[in-house]
Design brief:
Blueprint: E1 2-3, E2 7-15, E3 19-20, E4 26-27, E5 47-56, H1 70-74, E6 79-80, E7 89-96, E8 102-113, H2 117-124, H3 128-134, E9 153-162, H4 167-183, H5 189-198, E10 200-201, E11 208-211, E12 219-222, H6 235-243, H7 245-256, E13 260-265, H8 268-281, E14 290-292, E15 309-314, E16 327-331, E17 336-338, H9 352-364, H10 385-403, E18 411-415, E19 421-424, H11 426-433, H12 439-446, H13 448-457, E20 461-462, H14 466-473, H15 475-481, H16 485-503, H17 535-551, E21 562-563, H18 585-600, H19 603-616, H20 620-632, E22 639-641, H21 643-658, H22 668-676, E23 679-684, E24 687-690, H23 704-729, H24 747-757, H25 763-792, H26 812-816, H27 825-835, H28 841-864, H29 869-899, E25 919-928, E26 949-956, E27 959-966, E28 976-981, E29 985-992, E30 1003-1009, E31 1013-1019, H30 1025-1039, H31 1048-1051, H32 1072-1103, H33 1136-1146, H34 1149-1157, H35 1162-1166, E32 1174-1177, E33 1193-1196, H36 1201-1208, E34 1218-1222, E35 1229-1233, H37 1240-1245, H38 1262-1274, E36 1304-1305, E37 1314-1315, H39 1341-1347, E38 1375-1380, E39 1395-1400, H40 1405-1419, H41 1430-1440, ...
Parallel strand pairs: 13-15, 13-16, 14-15, 22-23, 35-40, 38-39, 38-40
Antiparallel strand pairs: 1-10, 2-5, 2-9, 3-4, 5-6, 7-8, 8-9, 11-12, 16-17, 18-19, 20-21, 23-24, 25-26, 25-31, 26-27, 27-28, 29-30, 30-31, 32-33, 34-35, 36-37, 41-42, 43-44, 43-49, 44-45, 45-46, 47-48, 48-49
């Protein structure tokens, strides 16, 4: 029983402590209680404060003191006077006292008039008691005070204070008191209040109690059935109506996750109801933070508290809540919930969120399900508001049952007596529910509400309620109903019935009878204010009742306590498949087999299974299986293993633990904890090593929460055993109460039984049980102190492993995580450091940290488990001793473990070295890790996991080499080799390795090379940090030697290096050394003279500054034919040294090529042959003019040598324009130079005076202008008389327009058909175009548009192929200057339009470097891609922009090729003239001249353009220390990639193979050969490299030239030869250049792990030997198959092409026959020659021949083809060689479509036609056209000779009618005829129209053709 009301209080308006009235009267509050309120007439209302007039009883109850601050809560908005009467108001405020008990303050407020001073004076004359009672309501004002303007009313409040929540009873009771007062009923107020204060009612049980307050009233009080279920009336339903489902769910989640919630409303009762409703939803959890449903205005600062709260505030104060940044505001009147940005409210886990939302919407709107029905039922039964309230609560009750199902299985009962101590294993609960990542449940379980839930509901023996039944028995039903909304609704209604019955067990039994005041009674003038009550009367009534209560026996309701049911074990809320590691029975079987093999000693079998086991252990079931299997092998807590078994077990344990989180939610670490102290091995007599010393590296061991959960679990087990032991002997005595358990009872069942028996036990027995439990906890604490020291102290305590950095070990705040603050751990641990005798600082550091960690743990668990303080002190003293003892044990273990023989590591495999290569550092043991290339690790192709591999890293003078074997035993005994030249190293960085191998590896190194190799390695533990550092230093020293002499190319042949003192034998003539010295000396002298001369020349130019040159003045560049003896000396006058220099220069590649091109020889140039337009000039023979140019240069005949020096000053690095190639057909020349200086050298001399505005930069370009005129003069003219020699026919305004372009004539004859073109929109290459000439006319529009992308040029060519060459009009310039946009501004345009500028934008070297870095990372990423598959690789490839740069280079080169082919000369003048210029010039020559596509020609091209013309190989390759900062720039590699792209498109045009290009790509950076060292010929001469000495000395030298090396290899093997080589004479290649047509070079991506890079041929293995017959007696034939693994084997070696295979077979057979094998090249040449002779009698060659050179590749060429027709010859450009004719644009477009059909038609023979005889003949075209190979068919039936492009061509290209043939006669070779055939192979066929010239492949076939044709003629 409990009091209905504890206190009755009367509170009235009182003045504020200091109020100044209008008249200036200072009113200070008097001390009397009945001081009248002050009046403020100006505002019509006054602010005051509440004063308690009376309270009953006046003394506090002992069990319930009077709550403070009631006067604030009576008027939450403040005490204020009101100008008019308001109706009485009622609300219930809630106050919470210091003991967290809630007091319900029911407040009924009414208003009374404030009396004026006159009324007060009149009232003084009235009778006594009335006056005394009325004084409380009057203002005692002086007569001088002004009268108020109108009547004011003051509030007065009746307050009822109770600990019970009966709102309606309070409303009725206070209403009755007010009614008695206002209606003047004849009832004593004192008796009514006394009766109210003495009324007692039961708390729960469902009983009804009728009360009366003595005023003729009657009330029935209904108590709930269970007081644990909240009473909500209609508050929950109202809350949902006000805010809606989503908002209420947000508030629900916010309250559970401890956020601040603020309700706003204009109604106080609504605020109270909303807060009550929210709390009702939280059941079964209790809200334990600040709860103030109605907050007074004076206390608004409470909203800034840092703790969570649920508070209601009147809406009038909404403005004051605006600045609260972390408060969720719910506006009940507006129906909104505002969540600040900085607040994250986690939602319910799915699918519970969506299920709850769905059910709530069905409950709130039952018609929702029927809204779409065609025939809805006529009426829907709607629930009452009270019933709907219970249904909504039922939904949330189900939600909690689903969330917390199975929670009792995670309770640990730590103590049973004297009071139960329960702990909850949060990690296990989350793990088993599958909600580890769920933010909501994690926060709920960490909250204080859930802690209260565990301590309240975790008790095993207590009264149960609806939630206990639901969570124990209804879980299965809820899971079954999930997908059936009607069944869910039925369940909700059942629960709602029970909740409703709890509040209303006997509905409408009795009628209430309570008097109420009449309508509008508050408006009547009250006869008198509320009277002062007599305290004595009320107190007497209270005392009487108290005395009566004390005499009566206490009515104690017996609580029905039972064992709380645990319910079914938990299941995951959402069944998630574990994806890749879904553990099938097969995987578990593998785990079991492996463990059984380990313990049976079958180590080889176990090793095979181990990788599969380690993969399977990623899954939870496999880990559980492993721990169960290992437990089976532990007997009596110990399992002694041998070393191998121990290693296997430890490795599997580590694999299990490495995926374990710090909280160990799946119990893996918990299951392994007893095992790590059980498995051990004997190291020596008396020394045993346990597994725990090898599994310490995991974060779980340093997590306090893990140890606490483990401790409580073990304590529960032991306490359960404590009570089960005695009961096992006797039959259970309490059979009647609980059913007999078939399985042993759980700990909670045992605890429940013990709690039931506890009151029946004697005090002595009770004390004994308490002591037993405490000693159990104490012994477990000691045990865990030992266990923790095992796993926290490192094996080697001298290594001060920083345990403090591991979670929680160092800082007590993070580790304690407990409510215990008065801990002894800190003080004991601190004193321990000084007193325990740890001398060694480092040991003490580790040990001290461990002791502090264990002490904090012991402190927390023992305090929570109720261990006495004496025992706790004893524990703190023991911990340091335990740690110290363990350290001493570990020292012996560590000492013995170091004596163990190391694990059998694979033997180090020594690499094979080249001659001259020496080992700098012997093998360091490392692991080679996967580097992101999938194939090496098994990859998508499904090969073996070759990486990681275990082996050693070797550093030699030439290479970094890894050799080793894969760690995966399934791969077998494969050797893995990865190597690259030291010189190719581009980046080296330290890495920390996370991968777990056999041991834990920490230090790693990643080396990246520009040969696309990457060594990502981790050093073995036996490699010390000093060795690793030494390796890095030596690597750095070898990579960047101080001088080029330190490179391998020099060091390998150091004994023979020329130039070493004492090594050069004396020679009568000048030796190489002398020559080099003389050259350098002369060059320095000349350079010095040049410097002086430059200074002397500067003064006259200063005088003539800014003036145009006089007409009679001689030009600065002389073009006269007079020879100036000062600069050009006849050869007779040259000194002997210079003559030797010249003779050596003549032997260089440049001169040989000049001679081949017909550009002259040195002799002819010195004799100044007038007929030659160009000459070889020796002006740079001493490298005086330009150090980076070769000694002999081709210049115009008309320019004298002394002028060249002045011209050179205008160009960067003095690299003035020189001729490097001449077209044999058009005689146009290709020139190269550096870019122009910013303003020219002349501009520098004139810089002091600004040039006149009229002639900007006019004079600065005069010198180069004259030189260019000389070049133009030396070029044969192909100008048309029809117009100006320019390409600039259009202004740049037309570039982007869609108007038709001018008619562009083709390049064949003046009367050729013209082709109309349409301009397309501006392409992305618009930036290359010229922006206009400085003189005003547009620059190079056609050239610009040619570069602007294919859409600008005629019919669109999708592949990036050049369009019809007719885009170049005949009105072309004689010279085009291709230069950088920025540099060409300084060049004055040619007034005669003889040359034209083609400004383009080129990429800089830094862009090439950046692109190459990205390409490297794309091809060799270094780590596995985040997203598997090709997408990430292709994305990073695109980001690198490497292919875009290749595209630009090819595009510019094709442009230059077409200009040259059209007869115009081109000068390429980009950057300094040694990077992009070299790339473009080399590509142009390669595309234009078939000679450079041969082996010899390509070598000549590289030697001439790259070596002689001074590409800076050393600088770009960062060969020495000086170049380290600049880094590697792959200019030459980019050129080779371009060649590779062309090679792919024209495979029959190149004599060399793709391997040839890869070989050069590898060795131009390897520094193995001297070819690509240094930056120019000058530097090579200075070092004595350029000219090899003749005679005996040459034989002694190591092969230092890459060309010689390749020549030697070519003689042995055809690896550099292209079998498809079948060139067409004078073929100009025009490759497609769009990025879509480019392929990533496999040089970047392929690798061969079997032998390393295949480019050091001496180190590569030979072809695989056929397997030997091991069992000769076996009749079964031995298989010759072998597996070829991607990324491991070299496919060309394992499976060579057919021709190579046949050649090898030939050599092998010849060797077997004892004959010296013929060279492969000779064999090949014989076969080709024989194939030409092999013709069938009908004239057709062998159809299957691979060697037929007459069948071109489908993309063999792209060019101009001639078609004979009746109207003369016309030109058209076709994409393929199958187009039959037509010059219209449509025919060109159709060509691309036909190319695919051609590919298919190649495989069909044209048998349907009549072919009497057929074969290949060379046919000479029309006038000035070259010879072409054609397939001719002699048709006797049709009497004609047809010809086709090739044998499989289906469209005839031309017909010779035999009826028109007059004669067939022998012919003679003409210009351009095939050179390899004899003169008798030529014959002519004369017709009535013209004479056809033919040439057969050899003489016999020519004779056969003549005979056949004459036979046809005679037959006719």
């Amino acid at each position: 029983m409990a009091r209905l009301a504890d206190y009755f209080v009367l509170v009235a308006f009182g003045p504020h402590p200091r109020v100044v009235l209008e008249g200036g009267l200072d009113l200070t509050p008097a001390s009397e209680w009945n001081q009248a309120p002050a009046v403020e007439s100006q505002r019509g209302s006054g602010e005051g404060q509440g004063r308690i007039l009376q309270r009953f009883p006046e003394k506090d109850w002992e069990d319930n003191p009077f709550p403070q601050g009631i006067e604030l809560f009576c008027q939450p908005s403040g005490w204020q006077l009101c100008p008019e009467r308001s109706p009485p108001t009622f609300f219930v405020a809630v106050l919470t006292d210091i003991n967290s008990e809630r007091h319900y303050c029911a407040c009924l407020t009414f208003w009374e008039p404030v009396e004026t001073p006159q009324e007060a004076a009149r009232a003084e004359d009235s009778v006594g008691r009335e006056e005394a009672l009325e004084e409380g309501g009057r203002a005692q004002l002086s007569p001088t005070a002004l009268a108020p303007a109108g009547q004011l009313f003051a509030p007065k409040t009746l307050v009822l204070v109770s600990r019970l929540d009966h709102v309606e009873v309070f409303r009725n009771s206070l209403g009755l008191i007010y009614t008695v007062h206002i209606e003047g009923l004849n009832v004593s107020l004192e008796s009514v209040i006394g009766n109210l204060l003495t009324c007692t009612i039961p708390l729960a049980g469902g009983s009804q109690r009728t009360i009366s307050l003595g005023a003729g009233d009657r009330q029935v009080i209904q108590t709930p059935l269970t007081d644990s279920l909240p009473v909500s009336c209609c508050s929950v339903a109202l809350l949902f109506r006000q805010l809606g489902i989503t908002n209420v769910l947000s508030l629900f989640c916010a309250a559970l996750t401890e956020h601040k919630i603020l309700f706003l409303s204009r109604s106080y009762q609504r605020l109270a109801d909303a807060c009550r409703g929210l709390l009702a939803l939280l059941f079964p959890l209790r809200y334990s933070f600040t709860y103030v449903p109605i907050l007074p205005a004076q206390l608004l600062e409470v909203l800034s508290t840092p703790t969570p709260f649920i508070i209601g505030v009147h809406a009038a104060f909404q403005a004051e809540t605006q600045e609260l940044l972390d408060v969720i505001v719910a506006d009940l009147d507006g129906g909104t919930v505002t969540v600040p940005e900085c607040v994250h409210v986690p939602p319910l886990p799915e699918p519970l969120q969506s299920q709850t939302h769905s059910v709530l919407s069905t409950v709130l709107d039952p018609e929702l399900e029927l809204a779409d029905l065609a025939f809805p039922p006529p009426t829907m039964p709607t629930s009452s508001l009270k019933m709907q309230d219970k249904e909504l609560r039922a939904v949330f009750l189900r939600l909690f049952a689903q969330l917390l199902q199975g929670y009792r299985w995670c309770l640990h009962i730590v103590r049973i007596h004297p009071e139960p101590v329960i702990r909850f294993h949060k990690a296990a609960f989350l793990g088993q529910r599958g909600l580890l990542e769920d933010d909501f449940l994690m926060k709920v379980l960490e909250g204080m509400a859930f802690a209260g839930f565990v301590s309240e509901r975790g008790v095993p023996y207590r009264p149960t309620d609806l939630f206990d039944e639901l969570v124990a028995h209804e879980v299965a039903r809820m899971r079954a109903d999930e997908n059936h909304p009607q069944r869910v609704l039925r369940h909700v209604k059942e629960l709602a019935e029970q909740l409703y019955k709890n509040e209303n067990p006997y509905p409408a039994v009795a009628m209430h009878k309570v008097q109420r005041p009449a309508e509008a009674s508050h408006l009547r003038r009250a006869p008198r204010p509320f009277p002062r009550l007599d305290e004595g009367t009320v107190q007497w009534i209270v005392d009487q009742a108290t005395a009566k209560m004390q005499g009566a026996p206490p009515a104690v309701r017996a609580e029905q306590r039972t064992t709380v049911p645990s319910g079914p074990p938990m299941t995951a809320i959402l069944e998630r498949s574990s994806g890749l590691h879904a553990n099938s029975a097969r995987r578990l079987e593998v785990v079991r087999n492996c463990i059984s093999y380990v313990f049976e000693g079958k180590m080889l079998e176990a090793k095979k299974l181990l990788p599969a086991v380690l993969r399977a252990l990623k899954g939870r079931a496999a880990r559980r299986c492993l721990t169960q299997e290992l437990h089976l092998h532990v007997q009596q807590n110990r399992a002694v293993l041998d070393h191998q078994q121990f290693d296997f077990v430890v490795r599997m344990m580590n694999c299990c633990l490495q995926d374990c989180t710090s909280t160990d939610e799946h119990g893996t670490a918990a299951a392994l904890l007893p095992l790590v102290t059980a498995f051990c091995r004997k190291l020596s007599p008396g020394v045993t090593q346990f597994a725990y010393s090898c599994v310490q590296e995991h974060v779980v061991w340093s997590t306090p929460q893990f140890w606490e959960a483990m401790f409580y679990g073990d304590v529960q087990t032991h306490i359960r055993a404590l009570y089960l032991e005695p009961s096992e002997d006797q039959p259970p005595s309490q059979v009647g109460e609980a059913p007999v358990h078939e399985e042993p009872p759980s700990a909670l069942d045992v605890a429940s039984e013990q709690r039931r028996l506890w009151p029946t036990l004697s005090r002595v027995k009770q004390q004994e049980l308490v002591q037993k439990e405490e000693s159990t906890v104490f012994s477990q604490a000691v045990h865990y102190a030992s266990r923790m020291s095992y796993l926290l102290l490192p094996l080697d305590s001298s290594k001060s492993r920083l345990l403090r950095e591991r979670a929680g070990l160092g800082d007590p705040e993070s580790a304690a995580n407990s409510l215990v603050t008065s801990s002894m751990a800190g003080s004991v641990a601190d004193s321990y450091d000084t007193e325990s005798g740890f001398e060694d600082a480092e040991t003490s550091d580790v040990a001290g940290a461990v002791v502090r960690f264990i002490n904090r743990f012991v402190d927390k668990v023992c305090t929570e488990s109720g261990v006495t303080s004496d025992h706790l002190k004893g524990l703190h003293v023991m911990v340091p001793d335990i740690v110290q003892m363990h350290i001493e044990t570990l020292e012996a273990v560590h000492r013995e473990s170091r004596r163990l023989p190391p694990i059998q590591k694979p033997k180090l495999l020594r690499p094979r070295l080249l001659p001259g290569e020496e080992c700098v550092l012997d093998g360091l043991r490392v692991y080679l890790l996967p580097d992101g290339r999938e194939e090496g690790a098994g990859g998508t192709v499904g090969g073996p996991a070759l990486l990681p591999a275990e082996g050693a890293i070797f550093l030699t003078t030439y290479r970094v080499i890894f050799t080793g074997m894969p760690t995966d035993p399934l791969v077998g005994e494969q050797v893995v080799v990865r190597a690259f030249p030291v010189a190719a190293l581009t980046k080296e960085k330290r890495i920390s390795v996370q991968t777990h191998m056999d041991q834990f590896l920490q230090d790693g190194l990643q080396l990246r090379a520009c040969t696309f190799q990457l060594l990502k390695m981790a050093f073995d533990e036996e490699v010390g940090s000093e060795s690793a550092e030494l390796f890095r230093k030596q690597l750095h020293r070898l990579r960047y030697p101080p001088d080029v002499r330190g490179t391998f190319a020099f060091a390998s042949g150091a004994a023979h290096t020329p130039g070493r003192a004492g090594r050069v034998p004396k020679d009568k003539g000048p030796s190489l050394r002398t020559l080099s010295r003389n050259l350098v000396k002369n060059a320095k002298k000349t350079l010095g003279r040049q410097h002086v001369a430059r200074r002397k020349d500067s003064s006259p130019s200063r005088e003539l500054r800014g003036q145009p040159p006089a007409e009679d003045q001689e030009d600065e560049i002389s073009v006269s034919e007079e020879r100036e003896p000062s600069t050009l000396t006849p050869s007779a006058a040259l000194k002997p040294a210079e003559r030797l220099t010249l003779s050596s220069l003549v032997e260089r590649a440049c001169c040989r090529d000049y001679q081949r091109l017909g550009l002259g020889t040195l002799g002819s140039s010195l004799s100044r042959a007038k007929s030659e337009p160009f000459r070889v000039s020796p002006v740079n023979r001493m490298y005086a003019i330009c150090r980076s140019y070769p000694g002999l240069l081709i210049v115009p005949q008309s320019v004298q040598d002394n002028a060249l020096q002045r011209v050179s000053r205008c160009y960067r690095q003095n690299r003035f324009p020189v001729v490097c190639w001449r077209s044999e057909r058009s005689k146009a020349v290709l020139l190269r130079s550096g870019g122009l200086h910013g303003k020219g050298v002349v501009g520098l001399f004139k810089a002091q005076n600004a040039p006149s505005p009229g002639q900007p930069q006019a004079d600065s370009s005069l010198e180069q202008e004259k030189y260019l005129q000389a070049v133009v003069g030396a070029t044969p003219r192909h100008a048309d008389t029809s117009g100006r020699n320019t390409l600039s026919g259009f202004s740049s305004a037309h570039l982007g327009s869609h108007v038709p372009r001018a008619r562009v004539t083709t390049l064949s004859t003046p009367m050729a058909a013209s082709v109309s073109r349409w301009t397309a929109p501006r392409g992305k290459w618009g930036s290359i175009r010229a922006s206009g000439r400085s003189g005003g006319s547009s620059v190079g529009v056609d050239v610009g548009s040619r570069l602007a992308g294919r859409d600008m040029l005629g019919p669109p060519q999708p592949n990036g192929a050049p369009p019809d060459p007719g885009f170049l009009r005949p009105q072309r310039a004689a010279l085009y200057i291709v230069g950088d946009k920025a540099q060409l501004k300084g060049v004055r345009p040619d007034p005669l339009q003889q040359w034209e500028l083609v400004p383009i934008e080129v990429f800089e070297v830094r862009q090439v470097k950046a692109s190459f870095k990205k390409l490297l990372k794309a091809c060799v990423p270094g780590c596995p891609a985040a997203e598997p598959g090709p997408a990430s690789y292709l994305r990073s490839l695109e980001d690198s922009e490497w292919l875009s740069q290749i595209h630009k280079l090819l595009q510019v080169s094709v442009l230059v090729v077409e200009l040259l082919d059209s007869g115009s000369s081109v000068l390429v003048s980009l950057e300094d003239g040694w990077d992009i210029t070299t790339q473009v010039v080399s590509l142009v020559q390669l595309l234009s001249d078939p000679f450079y596509r041969t082996l010899e020609g390509f070598r000549l091209l590289v030697e001439k353009e790259w070596l002689s013309f001074g590409h800076r190989f050393s600088h770009r390759g960062a060969h020495t220390l000086a170049g380290q900062s600049s880094g590697f720039a792959p200019i030459f590699l980019q050129f080779l990639d371009c060649v590779h792209q062309v090679h792919l498109q024209f495979p029959m045009e190149f004599e060399f193979s793709q391997f040839y290009l890869k070989f050069l790509s590898y060795h131009h950076v390897s520094r193995r050969f001297r070819t690509f060292l240094l930056d120019s010929d000058y530097e090579r001469i200075e070092l004595g490299l350029l000219y090899e000495e003749k005679g005996d000395r040459k034989a002694q030298q190591v092969c230092r030239s890459v060309w010689e090396h390749m020549d030697r290899l070519s003689k042995k093997t055809p690896m550099f030869y292209n079998y498809l080589y079948a060139p067409e004479d004078a073929e100009v290649l025009r490759p497609y250049s769009n990025v879509s047509n480019l392929k990533v070079w496999d040089f970047y991506t392929e690798e061969t792990l079997a032998e390393g890079p295949p480019y050091d041929w001496e180190l590569a293995r030979g072809p695989p030997e056929p397997p030997e017959e091991e069992r000769p007696d076996s009749s079964a034939p031995q298989s010759r198959r072998r597996v070829v693994w991607p990324c491991y084997d070299s496919r060309p070696r394992a499976q060579p092409d057919a021709i190579s295979r046949l050649l090898e077979e030939l050599q092998r057979l010849e060797t077997e026959l004892g004959r010296p094998p013929e060279r492969w090249k000779d064999t090949w040449d014989h076969v080709k020659a024989a194939q030409r002779l092999e013709a069938r009698p009908d004239g057709r060659g062998t159809p299957g021949s691979l060697l037929a050179s007459s069948a071109p590749h489908p993309r063999r060429s792209l060019g101009v083809y001639l078609r004979e027709g009746p109207v003369g010859s016309t030109l058209s450009l076709s994409l393929d060689s199958d187009q039959s004719g037509g010059s219209t644009a449509s025919s060109s477009r159709q060509a691309a479509r036909r190319s695919t059909s051609t590919l298919y038609s190649q495989f069909q023979t044209a048998e349907s036609e009549n072919r009497s005889y057929e074969g290949t003949l060379y046919k000479k075209g029309a006038f000035m056209k070259p010879w072409k190979a054609r397939w001719f068919v002699l048709d006797k039936t049709k009497h004609q000779l047809r010809y086709y492009d090739h044998r499989v061509d289906t469209e005839c290209k031309g017909v010779i009618d035999l009826a028109e043939v007059e004669s067939v006669a022998p012919g003679a070779p003409t210009i351009g005829a095939p050179k390899t055939v004899g003169e008798k192979a030529f014959f002519d066929v004369k017709t009535t129209r013209r004479v056809y010239n033919f040439c057969a492949q050899d003489v016999p076939s020519a004779q056969q053709w003549v005979d056949r044709i004459q036979g046809c003629l005679s037959d006719a």
